[in-house]
Amino acid sequence: MLDKHPNPAFYPLLAALIFMAVGPIVLMLANSFKLDVDIISGTSGLIFLPTIQNYETALCDILWYKPDHLDFCQLKFGGSFINSIIIALISTVLTLVLGAMAAYALVRFRFLGRDTASLTTLLVRMVPPAVLLVPVFGLWNNDFCIGKNTSFGEFLRNIFGGRGDVCLEGTHSGIILIYVAMNLPFVIWILQSFILQVPRSLEEAAKVDGAGTFQVFFKIVLPLIQPGIAAAAIFTFRIAWNEYLLASALADRDTKTVPILLVNNVSEFNIEWGVIMATGMLLAIPPIIFTLFASRQIITGMTAGAVKG
Q1: Structural domain for 187, as ranges
Q2: Coil vs helix vs strand at 166
Q3: Does this model's pTM top 0.85?
């Protein structure tokens, strides 16, 4: 008979793991309500007089009132937050749509070089983003531009402003495109394993009833691989939300994301630790909400969409 009592070291180990996971978040949350002098001194610990000045400084551009301790709103968190939401959501949706279609084609269709294409998608994902920084920056500034002397370029400048060539650099589209290209190989690779588990008999039965290829894909395959799509969505959204290196090179003043804003708030002579902690807490909220929502879809797909083959 198996011993139902756990090892005595189980609970101390579990408590240590929970502390390692939750401890930094609690510390950052506590420091976000402290003044810089309290954070630097390190004597207040968890007993201190809380203040919302750090959050007022971070959200000064979207507050309906002017904080008393600020003479000028320097930290534009609201605009950067909207940029991050737009870039992360659109890149995630595009990556999932293109990745699911490509994975289905690689699994179900037979064509020359299918195995090579499947392996190449995974190898491309192993390329470090830092390697792409210089070539992408050059392409986005030179090759993928609409000349200022063309009629379409003149039309765009009259509508959106600007005096030079219209390039992908400094635009939401440029950042979204590079994020889609960066996350697409992994999404294709992870969804292939889920599509392989879908019985071919279901697709063949749908085709017998008159369904086309796209109808089979959207009405039969996609609902059954819902857990895989949710897992890929979590991965893609978190990468797009937290990515800094490529965004710092491609974004400008109007399209910079929250990670760029957070790093730029650190200077050589002045580090506002409280504002950094408050911005970090605000930065963590959307991924947590998105992960919780996607996790529910994983559970729903595993319970309601399971298929016994």
Answers
A1: 77-304
A2: strand
A3: no
Residue 211 maps to a domain: yes
Domain membership of residue 216 (yes or no) is yes
**3-state class (DSSP) for residue 75:** coil
**DSSP structure class, residue 146:** E
Smallest CA-to-CA distance from 133 within 93, 164, 173, 175 is with 175
Which token pair is 205?
């039965």
- At residue 222, what are phi and psi to the nearest 5 degrees? -60, -45
Query: What distance in Å separates the CA atoms of residue 212 and residue 222, rounded to the nearest whole number?
Result: 14
Residues 6+ apart with CB under 8 A from 196: 107
**β-sheet bridge partners, residue 306:** none
Assess if residue 254 is contained within a domain: yes
Residues near 290 by beta carbon (within 8 Å), at least 6 away in sequence: 233, 234, 237, 238
CATH of the domain at 214: 1.10.3720.10
Is residue 264 one of the residues assigned to a domain?
Answer: yes
**What is the full per-residue pLDDT of the chain (309 aa) written as tens digits?**
455 666 777 888 888 898 888 888 888 888 888 887 777 776 656 677 788 888 888 888 777 777 777 777 777 788 888 889 999 999 999 999 999 998 888 888 877 777 777 777 777 777 787 788 888 877 777 666 665 566 665 665 665 555 455 667 777 888 888 899 888 988 988 888 888 888 888 888 888 878 777 888 888 888 888 888 888 898 899 889 988 888 888 888 788 888 888 777 665 556 778 888 888 888 888 888 888 887 776 665 555 444 444
Q: Say how far apart CA 263 and CA 248 lie, in whole Å.
A: 10
Domain count, the chain: 1
Tell how far CA 297 is from the center of its chain.
18
